[in-house]
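Hypothesis: this fold can be encoded by more than one sequence.
Test: take the structure tokens below, design a sequence, compare later.
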């Protein structure tokens, strides 16, 4: 028997106050790897988070210079069952988790309201194809990949259909899925606020 998590109907927030580096993270529920839009989720992650050309890096780290690091990752913690599409950012000194949240939401909103560029979509498809082919370059990689797809789908041939799914992803698909998943009621967000250090107790019978 598999337990299915109930649908989330309202935003959830968690605030942690510790004597440590401030941090922001948020997650949105997403379906498992068998969902027809699985390749679309991969495209969104690639465009927002893949390296220094990604939207989150360029906006938060390079241009605004408010974060030391910013990215998204999906699926988390795994893809066998419904999981999360998550984003995080580490603020630079003088900046707050709230700024990270607002900046991430601004980039998500762009994805929901305007098509990605032809170049961004082409780069995602090229990188995905290259990653898949590199994984088949030796016997061990080929054996691992075939075993994974046989286990997941009951048919190792599904490995060679992945490129077809990737090639079929469109700009409209990205906007549709972004509007479907990245909504307030589907979001859980958490952040660490740096707490002031606790004064050390005075030694050797100091004033109480």
């Amino acid at each position: 028997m598999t337990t299915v998590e109930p649908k989330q109907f309202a935003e959830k927030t968690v605030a942690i106050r510790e004597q440590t580096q401030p941090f922001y993270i948020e997650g949105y529920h997403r379906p498992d790897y068998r969902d027809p839009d699985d390749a679309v989720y991969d495209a969104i992650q690639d465009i927002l988070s893949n390296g220094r050309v990604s939207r989150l890096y360029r906006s938060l780290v390079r241009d605004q210079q408010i974060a030391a690091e910013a990215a998204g990752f999906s699926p988390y913690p795994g893809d066998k069952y419904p999981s999360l599409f998550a984003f995080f950012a580490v603020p630079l000194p003088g900046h707050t988790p709230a700024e990270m949240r607002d900046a991430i939401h601004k980039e998500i909103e762009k994805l929901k309201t305007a098509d990605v560029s032809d170049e961004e979509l082409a780069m995602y498809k090229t990188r995905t194809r290259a990653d898949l082919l590199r994984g088949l370059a030796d016997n061990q990689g080929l054996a691992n990949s075939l075993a994974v797809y046989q286990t997941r789908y009951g048919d190792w041939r599904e490995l060679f259909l992945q490129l077809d799914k990737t090639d079929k992803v469109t700009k409209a698909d990205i906007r549709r899925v972004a509007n479907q998943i990245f909504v307030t009621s589907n979001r859980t967000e958490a952040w660490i606020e740096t707490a002031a250090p606790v004064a050390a107790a005075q030694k050797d019978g100091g004033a109480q």
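The CA atoms of residues 9 and 185 lie 5 Å apart. DSSP finds seven helices and five strands in the chain.
Hypothesis status: open.
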